[in-house]
Write a structure and sequence with these properties.
Blueprint: H1 17-33, H2 42-57, E1 61-67, E2 74-81, E3 91-92, H3 98-105, E4 111-112, H4 124-133, E5 137-145, E6 148-157, H5 166-215, H6 221-224, H7 230-242, E7 249-252, H8 259-268, E8 278-281, H9 287-295, H10 312-315, E9 320-324, H11 331-343, E10 345-347, E11 354-356, E12 360-365, H12 369-374, H13 380-386, E13 389-392, H14 403-418, E14 424-425, H15 427-435, H16 441-455, E15 460-461, H17 485-499, H18 510-514, H19 518-528
Parallel strand pairs: 7-12, 7-13, 8-9, 9-12, 14-15
Antiparallel strand pairs: 1-2, 1-6, 2-3, 4-5, 5-6, 10-11
Helix pairs in contact: 14-16, 15-17
Amino acid sequence: MDSTSQAVAPTSDDTSPQEWIAFERLLADLAAQFANVPALSIEHDIEQAMARLIAFLGFDRSSLLFLQPDGSTLKVLCSVAATPYDALPRGLMTAHVPWLMGELRAGRSPRLSHLPQGLPPQAVEERRFVVAEGIRSQMIVPLREGGQLVGFITLVAFKDTRTWPDELVARLSTVGHVFAQALARARTDRALAAALAEVRSLKERLEAENHYLRDAARLPAKQALASRSPRFQRVLDEVAQVAPTPSTVLLLGETGCGKEVLAEALHEASPRRQRPMIRINCAALPAALIEAELFGREKGAYTGALARQPGRFELADGSTLFLDEIGEMPIELQTRLLRVLQDGRFERVGGTQTLSVDVRLVAATHRDLQREVEAGRFREDLYYRLNVFPIAVPALRERREDIPMLAWAFVKEFAATFGKPTERIDDASMAALQAHAWPGNVRELRNTIERAMILSRGPTLHVELAPARAAAVRPRSQAMPPVTRDEAEHESLRQALVHSGWRIRGSGGAAERLGIKPTTLESRMKKLGLQRPHAGSDEP
């Protein structure tokens, strides 16, 4: 307590000039103190100031109450009391004081002495409160912002009856104005800090989204989804049916068969298409980094974590998250993923704050998850959580009728990229493309066309198939030896001839089946040594 608190309180009309000077010094000190009070400590500093005031003036309690948005409920923001009295508990005030609020809204500052007798008859609620608290005298100082009443400060005496000189009331009103301005500035600072934090969060999120979008090299959906295959058309129908729902989708199929493109198509047909789909390949990252990539990290969460980083779940809030190769996820992370799928809650790595997100999950794998569960490499409860709407994506060899259309789509793409106009694909090349087993599916076909376009020197594209194994159509233990282009073409022509009864020309002939001229087919048969088997041979 400073030296000014030892002066006699200026609470009567015969207060000496020295007492007023000491009081003025205290008020000046308080005004200077609240010129630059940090927003985080404003309530604490106001309580300290109120404690100095009641000690100097000889009162027993002082409280600061603020009006809530409803205009009638009061909240105790700060309250201090001299020993042995109790301060008002912080929080919403249960007592209602309609007469007092009417006086304050009318611009008056009630000065109440000789309580409860000094209250007017209409102050029924106020009388109950005064009697219950044992108050003898009370001064109420209104707080205003922009001319509007926002709250008030009370000064209370329990032991003695006090008088309220006009000079004291005027100076206390000044103190109330200082408090009101400090509180308004603190609210503005807090609102600004919250807005800046939101801007930083949105900026981080936008930068992360742009980073993911820049790195997402994917096949245009229109190319991969063009199909004449009834089986693939059924897949597209399933995608169209499930897209408008929030249900989890599990895409099953071999590597390169277009699962990611289907996930993109599903997202684009969903109500979440206004925001980008976020994706992560669970097989492309070390196990130690997948957790931070999925759930984010706090600064200092581990060595090298120099800044806070939002995870893919945060970025996908309100959108779709595509988890490619979900079967490669470490089993220790599968529990955390299951929790997010169940209640949408998680914590960043190194953090304690629980975050909530609204994410639609699409997962994909080339593994047989049921077998992974039986082998103990995949959680059974997570499998059933993911297997809400499974879609089996056919391999390219199961939709061979789409190969010419896909091949031409890739040709047009690379022709524009490389500046190499291409008018046709060599008939023999097309036949070889259709005969190939395509263990790498659509991705392998695209790479093959890209390589051929790089080597192309004229308007006709000749495709040289790289040596490949037919491992995708047989068990791994029965992988076939490499197949040359001529061998693949020989087998393709032979099958077409067998199905047409070795008839080359006319409706239903082998040339029509292959989409080439009869003379071209005869020329290719001669070059490849392909002849109709003699009667009685074992070949069909």
